[in-house]
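#struct-help
A.M.: can someone run this one for me? Single chain, 401 residues.
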Amino acid sequence: MMAGKTHNTSRIDDLLASVSGDLLGELQHSTPDTRLRVERILLELIRPDPVQPRRVLPESIHTSFHNSRLTPTQSLRELVQLVQVAARQRGRPFSSVLELLPNPDDEREDETDVKLSPEEELLRDLVNLAVTIRDDGQVNPLTVVDVSQGVTPLFRIETGERRYWATWLLRDFIPQYSGDGMIPCIIIPANQSSIFRQAKENTARAGLTAVAMARQAALLLLTVHGYEIPAYAVGHDFYRQALELDLRSRREYTDVILSAMGGIDRIQFSRLKALLRLSDEAFELADRYHIEEGKLRYVLAVSPDYHAEIVRQIIDFNLTVKQIKELCEGDGLDTDTTDPLEKLPAAAVKMARAAQATNSTSPQDIARALMRQEGDVNIARARLQAFHRLLSEAERYLVGE
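D.P.: on it. Structure tokens below:
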């Protein structure tokens, strides 16, 4: 249920000054037992929310961690090792994570031209946050839900997961840590947990990727339609359930959902929800590389079998919206699964005839013809990649015959 709206923040001490009153104002304080309180809690007693729309860690590490195959320290070590491999391939190896931070004494001209992988950017940002916490203290507490059962205390993060991981990084990977392994938290009773407050926090901070916004939309819809939100890691199919849901049948929640999503309108909400139709691989790639909804909407027009391929082309060639639209509206990607006994499409016949001319056609001529046809080198390369995949699948079909 959605918590009733009040705006009584008189019980919050100075430590909460940096926390938005609007986010806390939705909490009810009916009895002394349900008052908000701030405590320093051991990191080991805190767990991130497994269905949090924003993925702090890469998907594979996220899943392993929430399935109890990795500890927090092991999860971060996996991330560090991923980044070390990428850095070594670029000829910039490092041993300490502090080496990822900009060095003002480094006068190499290529310092700002280096293109980092998503994992490198993530780790660098976490290291930067960890150093800030070390130097200035943790002035912005986490918001956690008390999910303790029996005598063992346990808390689930509602907001502040990046601060959680930065604190673990500070404790286990940055030299000369002098803290006590505890972190300040605003403790919320379990019956006052709010997915709407979490959504507001997400959108009010650095913002979400388009894919994370799609997950957020799904969680809000599933919640107001009475679906049980699990306390374990879920796959993409869990969020896809929201494709069958809408705002019309829950009109009383429309305004609060759109507000929690950052004040977007119904059209944008529908466009974000539609991203749940992306294939699993495309969904993860788009999330990792922060591809915006305006680009992804055109990918949905083609067969899901090609979603991941097109998203890779968007990443590799930095395609513009116009280029993506032209690529997806072309006739080379939306492959028909026509029965082979039926009349063959004219396009297939043309390609088969073109195969007879391979000995009399040079690669340079094909490249020039593609450039003349497309007028853009990135689209031309994307067409070639799509054509290469089509030919590979045709070859597998022949082997099967």
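A.M.: thanks! The chain has three domains: 14-194, 198-314, 315-401.
D.P.: also worth noting: The radius of gyration is 25 Å.
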